[in-house]
Amino acid sequence: MLRRPKPSDSEDDLLREQQKFLTSGAPSAANVIRRPDKRRGEAGEGGGEENGEDEGHQRDMVTIEDLPDELPSLTPAPPKKSRFKASRVTFEDEDPEARLDRHDTHISALLSRIIERDTSSTPISLPAFTGLAFPKVVHRSENSSQVPPSSVGGKKSIFARQIAAQRLKEGKTPLHCAAEPTEQNLPPETSMDADQCDNAEPSLVSAPGLVSGQGLRVSDSSGETLRIHEENQTRLQTMSQSEIQEEQKKLLTQLDPRLVEFVRSRKAQSVPFSASPSKQPGGRSSKENCPLGNVSRESCSSAAAVLSQRAQEVEMEGNEEEEEEEEEGKLPPPPAMTEADLLVKPQKEWVHMDKLEPEKLEWMRDLPAPRRKGTRKEMQARFDFAGSLIPPTEDLPTHLGLHHHGEEPERAGYSLQELFLLSRSQVIQQRSLALGTLANILSKACAGKYQSVLKGSVTSTLLDAGLLFLLRFALDDSVEGVMSAAVHALKTLLVCAEDEECLDSTFSWFRGLASFPLLPSAQEEEDEEDEVLDEIMKTTAKEKEERKTDHDVARQDVIKGLLKMKLLPRLRYILEVFRPSPRVVQDVLSILTRIARHSSSSATQVLDCPRLMETVMSEFLPNSWTAPSSPLPSSVYGLPQASTMKLLRVLATSGRHACARLLNSLGVRERVSCLLSADVSELLLEPSEALRITTEAYRLLAVAAAYGQACNVYIDLYSALVKVLQSVHRTLNPSDHLLPLQLQRVLALLSLLTQVTHTAGCHQELQASMVSSQGEECLPPPPVSWGHVAGLQTSLLGHLKGFVKSLDNPVQKDSGLTLIPAYLVYLEAYYHQLSKQKCFKPVETLQELEQLTSEVLFPLFSHHVVRDLMKNLRSSSVVCKAQSSHQGPETPPSLPGLACPGWRDRPGLVGPSSPFPLLTSLSLLLQTVTGIHKGLSCKFSGLLLSEPVIVYLRSCSRATPILSHTRAWLLWHEHHLLYLLLRLAHRLVPIDAEVAKHASLYHQVALVLLPWLLPGSEYLAHELLSTVIFSKDFMSEGHSGGPEAVELGELKLHEETHHLTSPSLQTVGALLREACVQLPSIRGCFLTHLAHLESTVLVSRDAFLGRNPWINSHLLPELTGPTLPSDWPFLPLLSLYERAGAPDGGALAVEELPHGSLQMVTHCLQWLLLLEVWREEALKVIPPVAKLARLSCVFLCSSDLFLERPVQKLTWGLFRLLTRRSRLDSLDLNVPPPGLASFLDLYSALLSQFEAVSFGDRLFGCWLLLPLQRRYNVTMRLAVFGEHMGMLRSLGVTLEQLSIPMERFTSPPEDSLPLLSLYFRSLLTGTLKLHWCPILYVVALSHVNSFIFSQDAAAQEVEAARHSMLRKIYYLTDKVMRNHLLLFRLPQQNSEFGFDMYKQLPPIRAKRLGGVLGLQDVSDVKGD
Question: What pTM did the predictor assign?
Answer without folding.
Answer: 0.75
